[in-house]
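User: These chains co-purify. Model them together.
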Amino acid sequence: MWQSLALPQSQLCLSAVLKNGQSFRWMVVGASSTEYHFCLRDRVVCLKQDPTTLFYRTILPDPQPSALHLPLRDAETLIWLNDYFQLDVDLQKLYSQWATRDKVFSSIETRFAGIRMLRQDPFENLISFICSSNNNIGRITKMVQSLCRHYSPCLLSLPDPVDPLIQVQYHPFPPPSVLAAPEVEATLRDLGFGYRAKYIQRTAKMLIDAHGSGDLAEKFLTNLRNATTDDAREELLKFVGVGRKVADCVLLMSLDKKDVVPVDTHVHQIAIKHYGLKGSLSSKTNMTPKLYEEINAKLTAVWGDYAGWAHSVLFTSDLKAFSSQGVVATEIALPTPPPTPSPLKRKARAAEVESDAITVLPLTERAKRRRAA
DNA sequence: GAGGGACCGTCG
DNA sequence: GACGGTCCCT
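Assistant: Joint model of the three components:
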């Protein structure tokens, strides 16, 4: 049943990599020997690991194939694992390179080993990160789960290992054609997606309209792997609800742009605390395109070719969920600019009425403006 | 073309 | 009252 693959945790740490906000669809199963489950289009992949070995298991939907075919299925799963975890990239080697270039990195590398970039499905990645604006990992995870439950059929179900009377349902990520339906916006709003509901439906619609139905739309996104970073980013920015940060996340996490460093408020803080960037730790400053570029350039210069991967290690080390193991913040003393407390003033909100008419033309205008900027 | 506010919902 | 941002309008 379980297959094994020799792989030290310095190359891959499942608990960190699967829960640090790259993917929101891995289910954590079991209390003692923790397993992670992930639903693909045709199967569920189960993983667990010990210090030297990664174990994997393939679960297929009901009409189980004959025993003859099982090795083939496991072989397919292994191919998927190699691709998804990018196991051909030697993470230890990267860690030592980053540590040489960067003292901050070298101070955390042993405690946060095995953190690598996943190579995700671009559509899933895009939609998930449209959900991420003004949001946190816990809620994003719930939203993505609920998206899958409502918009893709259950592939299979398994008894909950904790309470075997409960069946856990596994749903793949829904395709663009399903999310493009006009009713999706209202439904997602009811499901608690807020203003992101419209972004998701419209992005799916745009994808279908511009690049065709079937799997053409998804193929278009996947093909952006072959485009330059700038070209791919320009395409991503055309979608509604996708700004620079979300676009950069998709570039890094599913389109092979390993040097891209997405800048959010968190990374901004890290850059100020540890990399001598001017700014305030206490007050929230607006993330302007200019500031974004500045931070991006700074961190790319520090970490080099795989800067995006390095960023993920720093980011994870600073996440609350992992902070019990110790955080970088207190250990490195760098000169920091004096805090400039400037409380945000908030204004009473005006009632709002109108929404825009139709998709295609406004999009073109918007795209032009973006390109100009 | 830079700056500021609104936007959903959740949890302090 | 802040939050892994984006849109839209001054």
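Chain A has a mean pLDDT of 85.
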